[in-house]
TrEMBL record:
This is Cyclin N-terminal domain-containing protein. The lineage of its organism: Eukaryota, Viridiplantae, Streptophyta, Embryophyta, Tracheophyta. Keywords: Cell cycle, Cell division, Cyclin. It comes from Rhynchospora tenuis. SMART domains: CYCLIN, Cyclin_C. GO terms for biological process: cell division; mitotic cell cycle phase transition; response to gamma radiation.
Length: 399
């Protein structure tokens, strides 16, 4: 009888506890609701790579295999293993996973078979292809098994996200300058609302695809901008700004019903096609291929957002813009032209294919702090964004 009473009291206590919790916001309390994510956290940085992962990126040579075997077995080995099987056997003896051992390159296999006597250590590491996904092999969210297929699909369908670079000529009441003012303002709104990075790129893409198909009067251009951001938020964000917030941020220039009516018109015009590859998805991959650090990531995104404002950059497809921004950032930080075989392989672009776009980016970088449209420069001049705007432009690309 006492046990029954105890159970009743326990249940009553739990019920009281539930009532006391009230309307708690569980996601926010456990910090699952990401409001202001660290920029570009999905890319792999050098600091995230462990010592073991760094070793797995190094080309396998007989000398390197010998040093690994000595480290695993303890005492020096007179005859170091010269084949993949012998290296694997030494690792199995210590119950090591095969995925933990470095993967031999094609040149090393030729060297082991006796067909070539060239030592891989004579070859610069920058000239060899790195396995950029090895560090993410155990992370199911990185989908390493088919990540290449995903980006192959992106490249195949990225044309659907492109617009006619001359579409503004068909607009009777707006021009390139008005578009630039709108995008510059939206970048500040995006920053104020602390939205995801993906949201900004999709917002600009929706605006351009809609303006390519519909004539918009000057007084409705800002309405198109805030509505495009609302649509992008619904697609990318965990929590979406309410329509009243957009009415407020536009200084009550439009009513709630006008925003909803424009939303209906835009999704109808675009046939509800919001799933298009923007430069953002390609930048994540290319920065990973470049083994970037935070400084390079921020500089790359600074250059890319300058391109969002400039109407002339619509002539380039998203993947080329992303590759050129990555290349330009590397050249800026290193002070020389720098584009590895790994970057070229994953981006599918050579330096010659990027140089024209990169030079335009350098020009935008030089002028970013001048004129009236300085929203991007002010944003990336803050400590939150590493003062990336204050980096030296890659003037070497202009020579």
């Amino acid at each position: 009888m006492e046990r029954v009473d105890e159970n009743i009291r326990a249940i009553s206590k739990q019920s009281t506890g539930i009532r006391e919790m009230g309307n708690r916001r569980a996601l926010r309390d456990i910090e699952n609701l990401v409001r202001a994510p660290l920029p570009y956290a999905c890319t792999v940085t050098k600091k995230q790579l462990t010592e073991k992962n760094v070793a797995s990126h190094r080309p396998m040579t007989r000398r390197f295999a010998a040093s690994l075997a000595q480290k695993e077995q303890g005492p020096p080995v007179v005859n170091p293993p010269t084949s993949v099987s012998s290296v694997a056997t030494s690792h199995e003896a210590d119950h090591k996973s095969i995925s933990d051992s470095p993967i031999p390159m094609v040149e090393e296999l030729e060297d082991m078979s006796g067909e070539s006597e060239v030592e891989m250590e004579d070859v610069s590491e920058d000239n060899s292809l790195l396995d950029i996904d090895s560090a993410d092999a155990k992370d199911p969210l990185k989908v390493v098994d088919y990540v290449e297929e995903i980006y192959k699909t992106y490249r195949n369908i990225e044309e659907t996200s492109c617009v006619d670079p001359e579409y503004m000529a068909m607009q009777p009441d707006i021009n390139e300058r008005m578009r630039a003012i709108l995008i510059d303002w939206l970048i500040e709104v995006h920053y104020k609302f602390e939205l995801m990075d993906e949201t900004l790129y999709l917002t600009v893409n929706i605006i351009d695809r809609f303006l390519e198909r519909e004539s918009v009067p000057r007084k409705k251009l800002q309405l198109v901008g805030v509505t495009a951001m609302l649509l992008a938020c619904k697609y990318e964000e965990v929590t979406v700004p309410v329509v009243e917030d957009l009415v407020l941020i536009s200084d009550h220039a439009y009513t709630r019903q006008e925003i909803l009516d424009m939303e209906w018109l835009m999704v109808k015009t675009l046939q509800f096609n919001m799933s298009v590859p923007t430069p953002y998805v390609f930048m994540k991959r290319f920065l990973q291929a470049a083994q970037s650090d935070r400084q390079m990531e921020l500089l790359t995104f600074f250059l890319m957002e300058l391109c969002l404002v400039d109407y002339n950059m619509l002539r380039y497809r998203p993947s080329l813009l992303a590759a050129a921004a990555t290349y330009t950032a590397q050249c800026s930080l290193k002070g020389c032209k720098f584009w590895t075989k790994t970057c070229q392989f994953h981006s599918t672009y050579s330096e010659d294919q990027l140089i024209e776009c990169s030079r335009l980016m350098v020009d935008l970088h030089q002028k970013a702090g001048t004129g009236k449209l300085t929203g991007v420069h002010r944003k990336y001049s803050t400590y939150k964004y590493g003062c990336a705007a204050k980096s030296e432009p890659a003037l070497i690309l202009l020579e």
